[in-house]
Design goal:
elongated, 409 residues, single chain, alpha/beta, Aminopeptidase, Alpha-Beta Plaits, 4-stranded antiparallel β-sheet, 2 domains, 8-stranded mixed β-sheet
């Protein structure tokens, strides 16, 4: 099948993709709570496989589900992975298919990811397109890193990468030009570590600031001291972003609070030893500042190492880039990106590559915001991405002849 024919199949599934995306958008669930979402995905899989041509096996694991489509045991196997969880955000898009779950929203595009992969699964399982490799379709829980463990790490421990040659991922990018794919070889997405700590002190009545300590004062001194700390510790050539993300203390106007909860996001492309040295330095500063206040102490200090740095396998990246460009899509080699992604666990285990698909819609709202609303007109491009990958003979023996010259879309 030519790339033009493959793309036309993706386009023919536009309505299907939109319907699935909107159904999922209405029922957002946080990590490890995605029961309705998984039930919906399972229902779609069973619906699409009622006419399937290939041997298909559904595997349920703690971190989600994967479905094997077996074409030929002598062929390589690729992972096609999407994520399914949502974020604790109150939606403000006013879409007619807005979230029905108060305080929860698909604000990172995981509904789009799941829908695009389900449409690709439909095309393959119903023989609309014949894959040249075996495919392991993955719908993964809990990609958004919060208090719970990663769904990707869980699935990798449970063997999702066993017997697989390459893994591929795709993410919607609402701030980038629609229909444009971007990625880079080698280091692409950052380690997403976090530093959490709690300050405790005496607090007391607002009329006696001279007695004991006020947790807000301690918190403010820490914030001021740590502003730009990464630039005092590293050279300008080091890729580091150190950002306060939680600073919470007090809730009553006549009480000096006796505790403060704080968190810093530490995104980086550093070696483990350099990152550890920086965290020790930050910890020492926090303890030093806190100890300068009477009755104040650091009640807890926790470093969460976060997702590993995501590194694209260079061969897989270049194969995917060439595939997309030769099929008429525009691709961009980007700089390092400070997003965190638990697809990094897959790529630590097996080679592969991770890509973003631009879907900007004006006015554009970024990921993780209450008005996030990517342009659905480009979701077919994501379906095409998966279907084109299924047409590769392998990563080593890349292109069938008809992938090399196709019109631009």
């Amino acid at each position: 099948m030519s790339s033009e024919d493959t793309i036309n199949v993706a386009k023919s599934l536009r309505d299907c993709t939109l319907k699935i995306r909107r159904n999922l958008h209405e029922i957002p669930e946080l990590g490890w709570e995605e029961e309705k979402t998984l039930a919906f995905i399972k229902n779609q899989i069973e619906k699409f496989t009622s006419k399937n041509k290939y041997a298909i096996k559904i595997n349920w694991r703690d971190g989600g589900i994967w479905v094997d489509v077996d074409v030929d045991k002598n062929k390589p196997r690729f992972i096609f992975r999407s994520d399914i969880d949502a974020l604790p955000i109150q939606e403000e898009t006013e879409l007619h298919f807005s979230s029905k779950h108060s305080g929860k929203m698909h604000a990172c595009g995981h509904d789009c990811h799941s829908a695009m992969l389900l449409s690709a699964f439909k095309a393959i399982s119903q023989n609309m397109i014949q894959p040249k490799v075996n495919v392991r379709f993955v719908w993964q829980r809990s990609e958004e890193f919060a208090k719970h463990r990663s769904g990707g790490e869980s699935l990798v421990k449970d063997g999702v990468c066993d017997g697989v040659d390459n893994a591929f991922g795709l993410h919607i990018a609402p701030m980038h030009d629609g229909g444009v794919f971007f990625s880079k070889p080698d280091e692409f997405l950052a380690n997403s570590s976090q530093i959490h700590f709690v300050i405790e002190c005496s607090g007391g009545h607002a009329m006696r600031p001279n007695v004991g300590s006020n947790a807000i004062n301690v918190m403010n001194d820490i914030l001021n001291s740590l502003r730009g700390a990464e630039r005092l510790f590293f050279t300008p050539n080091e890729s580091v972003v150190f950002t306060p993300t939680i600073a919470r203390s007090g809730d009553t106007p006549n009480i000096r609070p006796n505790n403060a909860t704080m968190c810093f996001s530490f995104r980086n492309f550093l070696s483990e030893s350099m990152a550890d040295s920086f965290v020790k330095n930050i910890k020492d500063k926090i303890y030093c500042i806190t100890s300068s206040y009477p009755t104040a102490k650091v009640a807890s200090f926790n470093f969460i190492s976060g997702y590993p740095t995501l590194k694209n396998d260079e061969k897989s990246y270049h194969v995917t880039n060439k595939m997309l460009k030769s099929s008429g899509f525009q691709t961009v080699v980007t700089d390092k990106y400070f997003a965190g992604e638990d697809f990094a666990y897959y790529l630590k285990k097996i080679p592969g590559s991770f890509w973003f698909l631009g879907a900007r819609k004006e006015p554009a709202y970024d990921l993780h915001t209450s008005k996030f609303n990517p342009d659905e007109n480009y979701l077919w491009c994501g379906v095409a991405y998966w279907l084109l990958l299924s047409q590769l003979d392998s990563i080593d023996n890349v292109f069938v002849t008809d992938l090399l010259a196709s019109p631009k879309y």
